[in-house]
């Protein structure tokens, strides 16, 4: 049996061929020295790796070093590794020539099956909805013979409720992890590395909010299925300023660390539906995120190849301003942006809607360079990895691929944020005002974005109506002057 080299996102039992397989883990500090990650993310990854090494005991050789190459050069036995999750890591592993690189694990659809699905499409678009339905049939999830349970594939229409008029959703809290001596040692090490000037981090670190062991991940999954899944669906696209967690599972972080297999996660959700513990719309919405969107993004990352990350269809070249990249929530008056930057600063996490419709939306409106936006999301989020963020940010959030992934830009004004959140009630701006001291920066920014990209977007029928709305704006001139003067300053 080869020695299995485990990356820090391959930590579950399914990354070993046998429970007693010898393991090599490498804690390479150069990873943190190269980029300025959120400190909670550095803590989570190191805690997860060290916990896994402690579980494996004498079976695991754990090397703390500067680079992977230094540790690998000292290994005499034959090595194998499961397909790494970034193109750079894959190039490195394959390029050495002395490591057996195995197929990917930790996803519900294999690369071979995805390739066959792409071929079967011919010239048709690669649509997530079609991929997801194929996965449901193939994996027999929420199916009755060949038909979807309940007679519908898609319950999105039931899962777009605005938030309740209460400060929180009122569901049970997630199963928070309890820190131990491994976490204390990680925190000490991070303090020391920062003091020594080796690394610097974003945001704050603690208490650790995300599962770092398989035991913690299973407890989180149990709690979600029992207490939160039923409430997940209706408000999955809503935001509450005092309740960043709402009924979200928080399972993306442990799944992306490889602690849980997505098939066991959806199996648990499906069982809850069949027991009558959760409504179909909630269960379907959750299953869609796990074996639909998560797997689709993973496969697109490899299918679209490395050049995809540099696409910039809207020619957006502005640099991220410091107040945004440094998570300086206090310097921002806009209640939505300030509150969400504070949540990212404090937790390294917000759900998919603040990511897409507030942070990403603002970045696209302001013309920030997509590669910088992708890098920021990768570094600032505990569940952000190259494979997650390149398709999600370049394609979905910034429309930098010109429409390969999304059929239209996810640009929206303050009216959307007002409908789907409670932020506007406490904001100094007015979502219905375009020009003047009360003008909402999202509403004004939306029209400025459409004006700037009018020609680039003119061939897209899904955006034709908003583009024609530009002609009816009597205050477009003052609005453009106002937004030009705002520049990159904090709104
Ligand atoms: Fe955000 Fe505008 Fe609403 Fe303020 S008014 S919270 S800036 S959308």
Provide structural commentary.
Helices cover 47% and strands 6% of the residues. With 491 residues, the protein is mainly alpha-helical. The chain has a five-stranded parallel β-sheet, with helices on both faces. Strands 6-7 form a two-stranded antiparallel ribbon. Strand 6 and strand 7 form a beta hairpin. It is globular. The N and C termini lie far apart (58 Å). The model has no long low-confidence stretch (mean pLDDT 95). The site of iron/sulfur cluster (SF4) has 15 residues, from helix 13, helix 17 and helix 18.
List key phrases describing it.
491 residues; five-stranded parallel beta sheet; 7 strands
Rg over CA atoms = 23 Å
Tell me which oligomeric state these chains represent: single chain
Largest sheet: 5 strands, parallel
Report the uncertain regions. none
The main sheet orders its strands as 3-2-1-4-5
What overall geometry do the principal axes of the alpha carbons give?
A: globular
Ligand roster: iron/sulfur cluster
Helix content: 40-55%
Please tally the β strands and state the result: 7
Structural class: mainly alpha
Q: How many angstroms does the end-to-end distance come to?
A: 58 Å
Question: How many helical stretches?
Answer: 21
The fraction of residues in strands falls at 5-15%
Mean pLDDT: 95
Give me the strand/helix succession.
EEHHEHEHEHHEEHHHHHHHHHHHHHHH
């Amino acid at each position: 049996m080869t020695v299995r080299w485990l990356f820090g996102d391959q930590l579950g039992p399914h990354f070993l061929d046998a429970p007693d397989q010898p393991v090599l883990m490498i804690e390479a500090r150069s990873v943190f020295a190269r980029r300025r990650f959120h400190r909670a993310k550095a803590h989570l990854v190191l805690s997860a790796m060290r916990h896994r090494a402690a579980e494996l005991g004498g079976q695991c050789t754990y090397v703390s070093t500067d680079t992977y190459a230094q540790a690998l050069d000292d290994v005499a036995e034959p090595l194998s590794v499961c397909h790494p999750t970034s193109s750079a890591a894959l190039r490195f592993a394959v390029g050495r020539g002395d490591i057996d690189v195995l197929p990917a694990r930790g996803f519900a659809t294999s690369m071979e099956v995805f390739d066959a699905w792409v071929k079967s499409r011919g010239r048709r678009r690669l649509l997530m909805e079609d991929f997801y339905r194929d996965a449901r049939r193939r994996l027999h999830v929420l199916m009755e013979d060949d038909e979807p349970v309940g007679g519908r594939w898609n319950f999105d229409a039931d899962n777009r409720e605005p938030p309740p008029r209460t400060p929180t959703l009122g569901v049970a809290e997630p199963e928070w992890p309890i820190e131990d001596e491994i976490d204390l040692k990680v925190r000490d090490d991070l303090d020391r590395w920062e003091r020594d000037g080796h690394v610097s981090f974003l945001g704050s670190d603690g208490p650790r909010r995300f599962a770092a062991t398989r035991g913690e991940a299973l407890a989180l999954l149990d709690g979600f299925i029992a207490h939160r899944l039923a409430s997940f669906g209706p408000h999955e696209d809503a935001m509450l300023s005092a309740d960043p967690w709402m009924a979200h599972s928080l399972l993306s972080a442990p799944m992306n660390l490889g602690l849980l297999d997505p098939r066991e996660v959806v199996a648990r959700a499906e069982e809850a539906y069949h027991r009558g513990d959760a409504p179909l719309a909630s269960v379907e919405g959750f299953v869609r995120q796990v074996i639909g969107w998560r797997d689709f993004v993973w496969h697109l990352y490899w299918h679209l190849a490395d050049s995809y990350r540099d696409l910039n269809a809207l020619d957006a070249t502005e640099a991220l301003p410091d107040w945004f990249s440094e998570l300086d929530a206090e310097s921002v008056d806009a209640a939505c942006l300030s509150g969400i930057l504070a949540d990212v600063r404090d937790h390294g996490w917000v759900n998919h809607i603040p990511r897409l419709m507030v942070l990403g939306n603002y970045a696209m409106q302001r013309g920030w360079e997509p590669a910088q936006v992708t890098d920021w999301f990768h570094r600032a989020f505990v569940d952000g990895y190259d494979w997650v963020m390149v398709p999600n940010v370049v394609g979905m959030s910034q429309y930098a691929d010109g429409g390969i992934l999304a059929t239209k830009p996810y640009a929206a004004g303050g009216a959307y944020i007002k409908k789907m959140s409670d932020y506007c009630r406490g904001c100094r701006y007015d979502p219905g005002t375009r020009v003047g001291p009360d003008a909402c920066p999202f509403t004004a920014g939306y029209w400025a974005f459409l004006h700037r990209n009018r020609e680039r977007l003119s061939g897209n029928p899904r955006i034709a109506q908003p583009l024609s709305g530009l002609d009816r704006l009597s205050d477009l001139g003052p609005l453009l002057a106002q937004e030009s003067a705002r520049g990159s300053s904090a709104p």
